[in-house]
Design goal:
The structure holds two protein chains of two kinds. Chain A is an all-beta fold. Chain A is 0% helix and 56% strand. In chain A, strands 2, 4, 5, 9, 10 and 11 form a six-stranded mixed beta sheet that branches. The radius of gyration of chain A is 13 Å and the shape is globular. Chain B is mostly beta strands. Chain B is built from no helices and eleven strands. In chain B, a hairpin with a 3-residue loop joins strand 4 (31-38) and strand 5. The model of chain B has no long low-confidence stretch (mean pLDDT 91). The chains are: A mainly beta, B mainly beta. The A-B interface holds A 2, 6, 32, 34, 36, 41-46, 49, 51, 89, 91, 93, 95-105 and B 4, 31, 33, 35, 40-45, 48, 50, 55-56, 91, 93, 95, 97-98, 102-110.
């Protein structure tokens, strides 16, 4: 049972434009949501997170939005840069046991 | 800090052979996770430990898979016997416990397993 879903396997964006990566989840009890970025031949690295009690968190070019009623979160990258090309994983966490569940990932390609 | 260290980085083996993947978590982290990445399913949680104790192994696909954490600085994941469908990248990750942190995981570089 996949509790975290990323329905778009890939996304292509022009440099300088906005990239929007989407994620849906099924369990309303998740406490935290995170985005990880993964380059080829490397492990995923943490990018940004948001608590379930907030609806927005911003860090430089990266902003995560959470819509709890829709069980949906999104990652916005503005402006997109070629170095942002990577696979982005959405993840959700139960606070009481540190159990983290990941989506299948979205491959972002930013074209120069 | 060296980060999470996994070995081997690449393993090619024949069907039926035993495979052992190793992980050294970041010192001081009391959670350790094993994930498997495939094209179809993305990152799947296989098992995780807290203070060396297995907490949830419901993601382990079959009895052919086992994982141990004999001490705070080492864990291994074994597949015996291996099958071609086990081919994937296996990631180890560690994290600190609760108490203010967001549960961020620190991943190793992964072990790419190919079973012929």
């Amino acid at each position: 049972d996949q509790q975290v879903k990323q329905n778009s396997p890939s996304l292509s964006v022009q440099e300088g434009r906005i990239s929007i990566l989407n994620c849906d989840y099924t369990n309303s009890m998740f406490d935290y949501f995170l985005w990880y970025k993964k380059y080829p031949a490397e492990g995923p690295t943490f990018l940004i997170s948001i608590s379930s009690i907030k609806d927005k968190n911003e860090d430089g070019r990266f902003t995560v939005f959470l819509n709890k009623s829709a069980k949906h979160l999104s990652l916005h990258i503005v402006p997109s840069q070629p170095g942002d090309s990577a696979v982005y994983f959405c993840a959700a966490l139960f606070w009481n046991n540190n159990d983290m569940r990941f989506g299948a990932g979205t491959r972002l390609t930013v074209k120069p | 800090d060296a980060g999470v260290i996994q070995s081997p980085r690449h393993e090619v083996t024949e069907m039926g052979q035993e495979v052992t993947l190793r992980c050294k978590p970041i010192s001081g982290h009391d959670y350790l996770f094993w994930y498997r990445q495939t094209m179809m399913r993305g990152l799947e949680l296989l098992i995780y430990f807290n203070n060396n104790v297995p907490i949830d192994d419901s993601g382990m696909p079959e009895d052919r898979f086992s994982a141990k954490m004999p001490n705070a600085s080492f864990s291994n994941l074994k597949i015996q016997p291996s099958e071609p469908r086990d081919s994937a990248v296996y990631f180890c990750a560690s994290s600190t416990g609760q108490g203010g942190n967001t549960g961020e995981l620190f991943f190793g570089e992964g072990s790419r397993l190919t079973v012929l």
